[in-house]
Amino acid sequence: MKRLLLSLLIVLLTASSCFAGIDFDGVDDSITANNFLSNYSSDFTISCWYFVPTATTAAGQFVSSNTAVAGRWNLVINDTADSGKISFFFNNGTSYIITSPNNTRNGWHNAVITRNGNLFTLYEDSASVGTPVTQALTMSTSGTLSIGARASTAQQFLKGTLSEIAIWNDNLSTTNISALYNNGKPIRGLPLKIAPANLQSYWAINDGAIGTSADGDTVADLSGNGRNGTGSDGANNTGLTWSLDTFFRNRVFLIQ
User: Fold this and answer.
1) Cβ partners under 8 Å of residue 225, min gap 6
2) Domain count, the chain
3) Out of 100, 129, 131, 232, which residue is the most buried by the measure of CB atoms under 10 Å away?
């Protein structure tokens, strides 16, 4: 009995402080926020945690620029025709893409894209993946970006969960990228402690009550720069829900 009570106590403590996010329905859900990278041509890093179910077959956007012209960019998970691999796409008049060789559906993963001068490198769970691309690029002039959808054409709505999205005006070191991944154990608030002077946007995505709709809700930018996002559940009003993440949901810890 004592062991059972201790187990229940630990589960409750874990659930009260666990990692959360927003579930996107893959139909018409998105978050729109102010875009720090508008008309930007210097070093940067974008990081996000994502969970995409195995059964999801369509491509889905993590973060994208809100324009259809040169300078647009997208961090995306591809459809099943490309085995659920993540990619970073950008266009400077010509399209370029960096794609991971790995299928990362059905689990929490960390995606990071860095720019160092004109060198773009994609990381998946702290490891460099795909072939880095060296190209000059001035990011799109749009003042907004989209989370969970391709903003330029309102397509590729994500079916999955996003959390801990951050943007720095700096090329983070591999040491910092490894710290963000933390051996697959996401840490709430960690971007505030990694190169904080260069942190430009940070959406922890844990603002609402678990199980409630995020439609019209403010998704706070915790960087202090005021680039808050706004949730949109689209016409069907059945998705975009504040979620207790699957990473912790089924875990039970026992004291031996």
Assistant:
1) 36, 200, 201
2) 1
3) 100
Q: Report the CATH number that the domain containing residue 212 is assigned in CATH.
A: 2.60.120.200
Residues 6+ apart with CB under 8 A from 39: 71, 138, 139, 140, 141
**pLDDT at residue 106, rounded to an integer:** 81
Domain limits for position 24: 19-249
Residue 10 counted as domain residue: no
Tell me if 87 is assigned to some domain: yes
Is it the case that residue 29 has pLDDT exceeding 70?
yes
Residue 228: inside a domain, yes or no?
yes
Q: Measuring CA to CA, which residue among 102, 101, 45 is closest to residue 75?
A: 45
Contact 153, 28 (CB under 8 A): no
Sign of CA dihedral 99, 26, 167, 74: positive
100's tokens: 């991971």
Query: Do 22 and 241 contact (CB within 8 A), yes or no?
Result: yes
**Range with lowest mean pLDDT among 13-22, 65-74, 130-139, 175-184:** 13-22
Q: Any idea what the Cα angle at residue 191 is, between residues 116 and 120, rounded to 5°?
A: 20
What value does the CA radius of gyration of the chain take, rounded to a whole number of Å? Answer: 18
Inter-CA distances, 58 with 46, 83, 173, Å: 23, 10, 32
Residues above pLDDT 90, as percent of the chain = 48
195: left (phi over 0), alpha (psi -120 to 50) or beta: left
Q: Assess whether pLDDT exceeds 60 at residue 59.
A: yes
Average pLDDT over residues 78-82: 70
Q: What is the DSSP string of 227-242?
A: --EEEE-TTT-S--EE
Q: What is the pLDDT of residue 81?
A: 64
Provide the pairing of β-strand 44-51 with 108-116: antiparallel
